[in-house]
Design goal:
Layout lengths: L9 H14 L4 E8 L5 E8 L3 E6 L9 H18 L2 E2 L2 E2 H7 E6 L4 H9 L7 H8 L39 H12 L1 E9 L4 E3 L7 H18 L2 E2 L15 H9 L3 E5 L13 H9 L2 H8 L7 H10 L1
Parallel strand pairs: 3-6, 3-7, 7-10, 8-9
Antiparallel strand pairs: 1-2, 2-6, 4-5, 8-10
């Protein structure tokens, strides 16, 4: 059983996922979607039988250490509810996950996570370790991968801007891993969990008015359930270097909703205290289920996708 409010290493996260998969093999699929630059597997757990799939990611930035363990607890609780035909706050999880599936990626950036948790010595490759140290950034504040690239600025979207000579759109293995997942499934929507401000961002500047109105409706449903606030549309790009996110790529390439969920209060210190885990779980554990209740079927996006192709 997953108990929160404790430290979870990369090894702990991998072990926990495999244990859940072994306990509930009938309706889960555990697989590694890729490997990091320092050779760590990037795990994913798919729960449910439906072809139409919701993608949820966490652990994109190394120092954001609260959401990965919370994902483990969410996965376990969804599996238990499905197995026992129980309800989670009134939601029939068994029926929901017979109709839809959820792909949970709790740790997209395992190298960055280990650096933030244990320092640069956690990186096995000596060249990568030296490269990271040259950035002159405290390991506790590390948000990058083992090549020192912010993978949340590495996606081939209209807002991508190169920030280092060594990078280009989808140059990073972690980026490629998530792009592969987007291509592998008939996705309905995407939730990307980060840790800054208890806020939900829905607005996508590159997308049509109708897209943003619908995304705002979905985001409002999640703010009511969590107590988070709704991000303002002008906050999508705080600077010209804030583009190239996974949510930008997903929305532009599919025409489907992509929301950024920022957990943890704005003034939280790093490393993030493990005592936040229980509170964040209570705030976000219903979000995937609520979103699935509100989403339109995949077929409803066909017209919007055709419009996007015309614009391109």
């Amino acid at each position: 059983m997953i108990n929160l409010n404790q430290h979870f290493s990369y090894h702990d996260i991998m072990t926990s996922l495999k244990m859940i998969a072994d306990e509930f093999p009938e309706f889960t699929i555990y697989r590694n979607i890729g490997r990091s630059h320092d050779g760590r597997d990037i795990p994913m757990m798919r729960v449910g039988f439906g072809m139409e799939t919701l993608i949820c990611t966490a652990g994109v930035h190394g120092k954001e250490s609260i959401n990965p363990p919370v994902f483990l607890k969410m996965i376990e609780d969804y599996c238990l509810a499905y197995h026992t035909r129980g309800l989670i706050e009134g939601v029939d999880v068994h029926s929901m996950l017979n109709k839809y599936s959820i792909c949970f990626i709790p740790l997209l950036n395992p190298d960055g996570y280990e650096i933030a948790m244990y320092g640069f010595d956690a990186i096995h490759n000596s060249l990568l370790r030296r490269l990271c140290r040259r950035r002159k950034i405290n390991s506790k504040d590390w948000k990058y991968n083992a090549r020192g690239v912010d993978i949340n600025r590495n996606y081939p979207s209209r807002s991508y801007i190169q920030q280092q000579l060594s990078e280009y759109p989808a140059s990073e293995l972690e980026t490629k891993a998530l792009l592969g997942v987007f291509g592998d499934y008939e996705t309905m929507a995407y939730l990307d969990f980060h840790s800054s401000g208890n806020i939900i961002y829905y607005y996508r500047q590159a997308m049509p008015y109708t897209y943003n109105i619908y995304s705002r409706h979905l985001a409002r449903k999640l703010t009511r359930a969590s107590g988070f606030i709704l991000g303002k549309k002008e906050e999508e790009f705080m600077s010209s270097l804030n583009g190239g996110n996974s949510v930008h790529f997903y929305s532009e390439s599919t025409g489907k909703p992509a929301l950024t969920i920022e957990t943890v209060k704005n003034d939280a210190p790093y490393p993030l205290p493990i005592t936040y885990q229980d509170d964040i779980y209570r705030q976000i554990h219903m979000m995937p289920l609520i979103l699935l209740q509100e989403l339109k079927p995949v077929s409803c996006y066909a017209v919007l996708q055709n419009n996007l192709q015309t614009l391109n």
